Amino acid sequence: QQKVQQSPESLIVPEGGMASLNCTSSDRNVDYFWWYRQHSGKSPKMLMSIFSNGEKEEGRFTVHLNKASLHTSLHIRDSQPSDSALYLCAASPPSGGNYKPTFGKGTSLVVHP
Amino acid sequence: DPKIIQKPKYLVAVTGSEKILICEQYLGHNAMYWYRQSAKKPLEFMFSYSYQKLMDNQTASSRFQPQSSKKNHLDLQITALKPDDSATYFCASSPGQGNTEVFFGKGTRLTVV
């Protein structure tokens, strides 16, 4: 059973549009959320992380976290064709113990010109 | 300048044969991991090592055996290869066993014929 659920599975947005991606953990023993981006044929690279309730913004990218519902979302404004990629969400428990970064199935984003 | 070196980049193997995937990291990290990704399955956690000690094994088959000769080295031996083993195998590392970013190598694309 996948402990990190992502939606939608795929998303198409026009260039300049807003892309919104969702991620929820079914494991209540998580405290940290990560968003990775994987371009086609490449390896995943960390995009943003969030540990506290609320919002975090870095350029065109904004992440939200609701710890009570274990839900995080990634929003990309003014989407560019170069943003087309697989977006992976990961959740991890508090420090200590066995660290096993577990990823969701991902959201495939296509930004068309 | 890649800091996590995986060899080879591409590998074609015959069903029933044995192969070793090489991974070395030069980030000074204490934790290393193996992940697998294919068109049929999402990014899947396989093993985690910390200070050369196996921390977690999520691979049901004993055909997959990680080997760590040095702290920065984690190879993956796969025996009795099957076509279903065809996937891209990513080696990854993180500073420690905690809530830190995971860095991925470029992967070894394995095709079993």
Helix content of chain A: under 10%
Largest sheet of chain B: 7 strands, mixed
Please provide the ordered H/E string of secondary-structure elements of chain B: EEEEEEEEEEE
Shape of chain A: globular
- Rg of Cα set of chain A: 14 Å
| General shape of chain B | globular
Count of DSSP H/I helices of chain A: 0
Q: Helical amount among residues of chain B, as a percent range?
A: under 10%
Number of helices of chain B: 0
Q: Segments of chain B where pLDDT lies below 50 for 5+ residues?
A: none
The residue-averaged pLDDT of chain A reads 92
Strand content of chain B: over 45%
Task: Kindly report the oligomeric state of this protein.
Answer: heterodimer
Uncertain segments of chain A: none
Mean pLDDT of chain B: 92
> In percent terms, what proportion of residues of chain A is strand?
over 45%
**Spatial gap, N to C terminus of chain B:** 32 Å
Instruction: Tell how many strands the DSSP assignment of chain A holds.
Output: 11
Structural class of chain B: mainly beta
Q: Can you tell me about this structure?
A:
The complex is a heterodimer of chains A (about 110) and B (about 110). With about 110 residues, chain A is mainly beta. Chain A contains no helices and eleven strands. In chain A, strands 2, 4, 5, 9, 10 and 11 form a six-stranded mixed beta sheet that branches. In chain A, strand 4 (about 30-40) and strand 5 (about 45-50) form a beta hairpin. With about 110 residues, chain B is an all-beta fold. Chain B is about 0% helix and about 55% strand. In chain B, the strands form two sheets. In chain B, strands 2, 4, 5, 6, 9, 10 and 11 form a seven-stranded mixed beta sheet that branches. A four-stranded antiparallel beta sheet of chain B has the order 1-3-8-7, with no helix packed on it. The mean pLDDT of chain B is about 90. Classes of the chains: A mainly beta (about 110), B mainly beta (about 110). The interface of A and B includes residues 46 and 49 of A.
